[in-house]
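#structure-requests
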Amino acid sequence: MTLQENTANVVNSHLAAFAEGLDALVADYDESSVIITPRKVFRGLDQVRSFFDTFLREIPEGFWDAFKLNSRVEDRQFALLVWEAKPWVLYATDSLYIADSKIKVQTFASLSSNA
């Protein structure tokens, strides 16, 4: 399997995991994983789990119906996702660095409305 194919597989798994729940989301990471946001850096599986637990609990009704993936670009071990879920999230971006079939580094930033 090429780096490109591995990256695509991990991104597919990550996107599908949102419908499967917290354990499926965390399975795409390992103890060395880091999620970097504008407010905090989350390191290791416990903090990654905490990040996604909070995210999933705070999603308003109708969010997933409004979710739209606007751009998905992959190059070797890197992926960039640009998405929205209007009216709550006007613009969001995730960048992923993938190695050993796990998301090692992720950055996340979003522009939200007051809806």
